Structures are given as C-alpha cells and as structure tokens.
C-alpha cells in the first residue's frame, strides 16, 4: 500500500486534515490541482475581503497574522495558506487533478491527470464546497450579443463593458459584486426571494464574535435550529444598503428574449452584460464507487464519514455545524475525522 491516507484537495480543508494526519504520524499525501497552495484564493475577484475577522480565519496550529479584529484580503489568505503548508511541511503534490477514484479489494485506487496511480487505505475528499461554477440552463436562450460570465470569472469593473449589468443571484458574492459595480455601471440585481442581511459589526463587535458567544457557530446541521438557519442564511455586511441606494433590485429571472430579460413580476429590461452569481455545484463524477452519493449527487455521510469504509469528506457546507465550510470551523471537523480513522 502506498499510503495510509490520501487527501484530495489542498485548500483550507485539506490542509487542516494534513495538519492532524501529521500529528498522528500517518503516511499521507495531499493531491491538489492548483499550481501552488492558495491559488484558488488568488483567482477570486480583486476586492474580495473575508467577512470573518482574522481571529475567526485561522487554521489549527497557526494564527493568521495581523490585527485580529481586522478583515483579511483574498491575497492575505492565499499567502497564509501557502505559509501554513510550508511551516508544517505538509506533503502536497501540485498540478495533480484527481480524475478517478476506485475501490478494489479493500484498497482505494486514485488516478490523476498526470497519469499517476496511487493506492491507499483511506481517502479524504477535501475538494470543498465551492468547486464547479453553476450557470442555469436559461443561458442557452440568451443572445450572443450579451456578455456572460460566472462570478468566479469576475475580477474587477474594468472587464465589464459599458451598459446595463444584470447580476443574477443575491447571496454574499452577488450582492458584493453588484455593490462594487454600482460605482461604475448601471446595475440590476435579480433575486429569487427576500434578501436577509446582518451587519458585519454589531455594538462594536464582529458579528462572528456574537455568533460564537451566543453559541450559534456550534449549532448542529441536523438540529431544528440548524435546519432553519440553513434555509434562512443571511448575507453579511453593508453592501446591500449600497445596492438599494445605487442599483435596481428586481424579481427572479424567468426568461430571455433577444436582449431583453424578463422577471417573475413582469418587469422587462434590456441588458448588455450578465454576471451569474448562481453558486457552485460539487462535481463528483470522478468517484467511481457505488453508494457514495444520494439522488441529488451529494455525499451521503454522517459528520464527514461516508457509508464506504475508509472514505471521508470535509469542507462541506453545514457538514457538522454552521462554521464547517469556514476557515475557522474546518479544523474541528478535520480533527474529528483523523481521530475516527483506522
């Protein structure tokens, strides 16, 4: 057997697992499809700043440098993750996209885009909650004259031509991009339901300080409160106020004819650019093992432990608690998984 454990994905979830695997003196390898640790953060839009302060943005064993009450930029997080991997000397093999995972006679077989083949007793899938950009099928009916891009491809306002910009999706990313573009463009924000927002600072303290001290970061995914919070997760910060002031908020996008967008409340509007802030879907087609996914192609698991012996998941949204997909929260899930491994 080549390894005790192979971790698929070298973002914050994979690094956290690597930290605890090293403490447990396991023979392991992290396979990552990026050129270097932290690249997935570098590739996000230029103005991105975390809504969690530095005190809630660290992985186990190493604090994020800087003012703990301040909010880190995307490049700061990228540099921190790179430093983390180096400080703990984690064995990471880059430019190694995993294209197939099989199980044969008690061993997992992993194949990468480089042609490498590995055998291991256990696998942790740490490819994260934000893996494959999702654009709804309606895009096929839209005029070729309209510029379209997913939020994952947005960097700054310079890449957006003049004219009306339609941002579809009113989660944190959509609202932040709409707020930024409202300084330079005519912006329309399409949302499917009423937007709920919470301030980033409340009575002089970070929102996450309040969530932590009120116990809300520890709410379990399958509790009654957890189920309610998943359905009613608010956006965080003051960007919504700016959007309400500088942009136009409209109903759900339902159709497109030529250059004209049509919304559920019968509003019609011509636009020149569409930014799809419609989220991500995890792509698990490379897992060639029966019984891993449910009918919605989501992992079947209990706190990251799948029904397949030796196969684990980490970094999923609401994997165990409210903070499971956040940098601060993933460490607890990583420690748990390593402790339950053989």
TrEMBL record:
This is Oxidoreductase. It comes from Siminovitchia acidinfaciens. GO terms for molecular function: flavin adenine dinucleotide binding; monooxygenase activity. Keywords: Oxidoreductase. It comes from the Bacteria. It holds the Pfam family Pyr_redox_3.
């Amino acid at each position: 057997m080549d390894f005790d454990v192979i971790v698929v994905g070298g973002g914050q979830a994979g690094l956290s697992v690597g930290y605890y695997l090293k403490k447990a003196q396991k023979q392991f390898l992290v396979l990552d499809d990026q050129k270097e640790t932290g690249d997935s953060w570098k590739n996000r839009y230029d103005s991105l700043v975390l809504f969690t302060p530095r005190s809630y943005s660290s992985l186990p064993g190493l604090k994020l440098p800087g003012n703990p009450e301040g909010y880190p930029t995307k490049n700061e997080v990228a540099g921190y993750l790179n430093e983390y991997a180096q400080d703990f000397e984690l064995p990471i093999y880059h430019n190694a996209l995993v294209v197939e995972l099989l199980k044969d006679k008690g061993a997992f077989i992993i194949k990468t885009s480089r042609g490498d083949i590995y055998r291991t007793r256990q696998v942790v899938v740490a490819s994260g909650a934000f893996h494959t950009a999702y654009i709804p099928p309606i895009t096929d009916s839209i005029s070729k004259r309209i510029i379209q891009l997913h939020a994952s491809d947005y960097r700054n306002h310079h890449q957006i031509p003049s004219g009306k910009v339609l941002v579809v999706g009113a989660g944190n990313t959509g609202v932040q991009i709409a707020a930024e573009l409202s300084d330079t463009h005519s912006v329309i924000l399409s949302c499917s339901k009423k937007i709920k927002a919470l301030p980033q600072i409340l009575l002089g303290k970070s929102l996450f300080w309040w969530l932590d001290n009120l116990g809300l970061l520890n709410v379990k995914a399958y509790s009654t409160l957890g189920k309610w919070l998943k359905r009613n997760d608010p956006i965080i910060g003051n960007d919504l106020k700016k959007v309400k002031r500088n942009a136009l908020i409209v109903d759900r996008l339902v159709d497109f004819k030529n250059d004209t967008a049509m919304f559920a409340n019968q509003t019609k509007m011509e636009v020149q650019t569409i930014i799809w802030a419609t989220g991500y879907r995890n792509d698990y087609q490379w897992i060639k093992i029966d019984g891993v996914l449910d009918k919605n192609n989501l992992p079947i698991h209990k706190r990251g432990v799948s029904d397949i012996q030796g196969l684990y998941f980490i970094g999923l949204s609401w994997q165990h608690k409210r903070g499971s997909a956040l940098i601060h929260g993933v460490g607890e899930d990583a420690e748990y998984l390593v402790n339950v491994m053989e």
